[in-house]
Amino acid sequence: MNLETNYLGLTLRNPVVASAGPLSQTVAGIRELGDGGVGAVVVYSLFEEQLRREAERLTRLETQFEDMFGEATSFFPEVPNEGAHPAHRYLRLIEDAARVSEVPVIASLNGVSVGSWIDTARQLQDAGAAAIELNIYFVPGDLRTTSAQVEQRHVEIVSAVKQSVSVPVAVKLSPYFSSPGHMCVELDRAGADGLVLFNRFLQPDIDIDRLEMVSGVTLSSPNEARLPRTWIAILRGHVRASLAATTGVETPEDVIKYILAGADVVMTTSALVRHGAGYALDLVVGLEDWLTSRGLTLEQARGMLAIPEAASADAFERAGYVDALQKAKSTYGSLV
Q1: At residue 238, what are phi and psi to the nearest 5 degrees?
Q2: Where is the Dihydroorotate dehydrogenase catalytic domain positioned along the sequence (predicted)?
Q3: pLDDT (tens digit, 9 = 90+) per residue, 135-157?
């Protein structure tokens, strides 16, 4: 069966994509993901903070030796090997992986401000990245920050990167906007070629024995897929950008549900970390078998259960909410 998929204008052999994570930190890991069956690989993220620290280090070096004169030919400052710095390592990884990978390699930039780190997008493009994924991980802790300011920052970052590169740009964003749908439409208008729904905020917990905040990363579970599926079903047909689903993918059934909601591609890291890179083929085969059993093509299934473009999404979602409460009464009693 033909599972060929268009994502960001790129032609993928299937819609299962390895999202940014620990399996894509080496050329060998990226090749293993490709051999495992994914349609594309998003490389682990390069952070704005890493680039800022490197820029500050170079500034300190320049300042330290700015009074040296040309005749001091016997003096050369000790400069660390450039390969030791995150940006140089990352660029080399993209370059090497793009040369040997059988699937598109997508670079990932993680940042929250409009600044010089954005220029790195052009370097990633030049290194061979097929596309750039912007992971805008912004938690506005300043209580004076308005929702409009948060949204405007996202738009400005996307606009700045789009002006810097010619390769496609996807935006990975969180669901925590006052109106996620409007934010997606604004990013679409700003030129985003893809929307990745959704980022998972790594919220801290509390250790009651040590009396301190503790942070950590947990792998996603299928229950977390309901929120991104809902918004993909709403956005399908209303934005030009490709729609990528991420979070909560564990089985072929999860992939199928996202496709039915309208996702162009379905991304996963958690399932591949749990089961290995080769598990991607299980997801692909499971999707293929289901389509065959239903007599459907991939394009026929994609968006089959999205909210119809002519329907009122507000009324549709409200009706679903009321219906869910009515069904729950038979199990739990009245919940309201």
Answers
A1: -110, -10
A2: 3-288
A3: 987 777 788 999 999 999 999 99
